[in-house]
């Protein structure tokens, strides 16, 4: 349905996106994952024709959209990272305004407003001014605006940033429902690993403008097929304990939390007894030492040497 071909964007000396190629099939939920500053928003701005690439191509149904983006714009709904609403208007007035921009009129527009308000769970708040809404309600209305014209492709740029867990779960379930009931194709960008794991059929991982991994969750996790992830939890951590782990030649990667350490080692390496002895020598109490099932977070740590939100 959509294909990015060696897409590149430079801002003077900054290379924001570097020769990124990816595709989206009709009916998929595709995740674009990466930390802040990875190039996700720049990539989708080029995909949605809001920004002209320095190089490469955006293709819709195998036709380039660079010179004539109208066919792609017509079937695309965009949920931007920053909330794009008129806060002095009511929820219904916002939907009516944006619906008219989509050239919806009369009975058709009224029907779509009712339908969208039901889908985003704001029917009973339709007459309320948006500046009285919580952050989560504004996010949901932002999604509603993008859904008014029944887009084939819904692009969502970090739609759950800065909202409460209840609203976040509501948005995730809404995305799932749109995909299953309307066969809507979704490109979902996030730096929340668990959201992408929950929603997406396939995943692309960006870091510093580079595409560093792509595939299904199973394919990406198989990158760690020769390694294992060990989670060490303690009553406290000391520099002595952490530095000893960092300098152990069998340890490939390490990430340090407040009272836990994640360690990636080759699959054949057994360092359990060494960790227990090290903790005793450092005067620490270990509450648990467990082998974790590989996650996308572990893959990102393996590929970049740092956590996703670092």
Automatic annotation (TrEMBL):
Pfam families: ABC_tran. SUPFAM superfamilies: P-loop containing nucleoside triphosphate hydrolases. The keyword Manganese does not apply. PROSITE patterns: ABC_TRANSPORTER_1, ABC_TRANSPORTER_2. InterPro entries: AAA+_ATPase, ABC_transporter-like_ATP-bd, ABC_transporter-like_CS, P-loop_NTPase. Transmembrane segments: none annotated. This is ATP-binding cassette domain-containing protein. It comes from Ornithinibacillus caprae.
